[in-house]
Amino acid sequence: MDASRRRHALGQNFLIDRSVASHALDLARLPAATPVLEIGPGHGALTDVLLEAGHEVFAVEIDSELAAKLAARGDPALHIEQADFLRLPIEDIPARFRFVVANLPYSSGTAIVSRLVSAMGRFDRLVVLLQREVAERLAAGPGSRAYGALSVLTALGAEVRLGPIVPPTAFRPQPKVESALVRLDCRAQVPESVKNLSAFRLVVRGSFGQRRKVLRNALTSALGRDRALACLEISAIDGGRRAETLSFDEFALLAQAASGLLAGTLVETADPGS
């Protein structure tokens, strides 16, 4: 496979509009001379803006040719790691890089964001460029069409704010869809209302697993009918509602009830990823 076809398969659409990179920096509100982690720098359009603004950059690039071209610049403020970020141990990234600014590949953007947000206490803020649909799902609140399991599970690890919409013309090759910037202010720990992460994820995924069903029926598929009804009764949540109407705190109440009903069957984990 030649380089262009390989990059297309990776979902790489390279940023060419410097104004978008400037918007990303404005949204990030980085302190002066902040070390920044960049994932997927590509040809370096965003990298250049970060360096020009006085930031040290640790760039993780999966493509060996692109990584070599960036490294060949010899800029002492630019550190290149040729690797797949999803396989790179977080501890291999120097601890001073606590802010992330990146144009993420469409094919792996959701997984990358989930991994970053799941690293509780490791990162302070993320500003990433994603497919618009994904960005809107990350930032969505109850009652909106985009609100779903990804929205709720991301809220475990970050407060999310949708930024500017970015047209296809900002990239080469041009994607067929719009993109959007999104800012995630990372939490140092899971919200206190969530007592059991495994129960929380089970309830959230079960609730949204069959979106057309009311809550009692959706939870029945995940928990069994008796447990589902008991869970709703304990949490005082109407089983005739649909998952997209519930707030984060209401999911936490359901999860707390489910945790008691499923005691001994759930394995606790510290990973809040979606």
Write up what this structure looks like.
The protein is an alpha/beta fold and 274 residues long. It has two domains: 3-186, Vaccinia Virus protein VP39 (Rossmann fold, 3-Layer(aba) Sandwich), CATH 3.40.50; 197-261, rRNA adenine dimethylase, C-terminal domain (Helicase, Ruva Protein, domain 3), CATH 1.10.8. It is built from eleven helices and nine strands. The protein has helices at 3-9, 18-28, 45-52, 64-71, 109-118, 132-139, 149-154, 197-208, 215-223, 225-235, 248-261, and strands at 14-15, 36-39, 57-61, 78-82, 99-103, 125-131, 158-166, 171-172, 179-186. Strands 4-3-2-5-6-9-7 form a seven-stranded mixed sheet, sandwiched between helices. The longest helix has 14 residues, at 248-261. The two termini are 32 Å apart. 42% of the residues are buried.
Radius of gyration over C-alpha positions, nearest whole angstrom = 20 Å
- Average pLDDT rating: 92
Largest sheet: 7 strands, mixed
How much helix is in the residues? Answer: 25-40%
Overall tally of structural domains? 2
Q: Kindly, what is the distance between the CA atoms of the first and last residues, rounded to a whole number of angstroms? A: 32 Å
CATH topology term of the largest domain? Rossmann fold
Strand content is 15-25%
Helical element count? 11
Structural class comes to: alpha/beta
Low-confidence spans:
267-274
**Name of the CATH superfamily of the largest domain:** Vaccinia Virus protein VP39
Which outline best applies?
elongated
Strand ordering within the main sheet:
4-3-2-5-6-9-7
How many strand units? 9
CATH C-level label of the largest domain: Alpha Beta
Report the CATH architecture of the largest domain: 3-Layer(aba) Sandwich
- Helix-strand sequence: HEHEHEHEEHEHHEEEHHHH
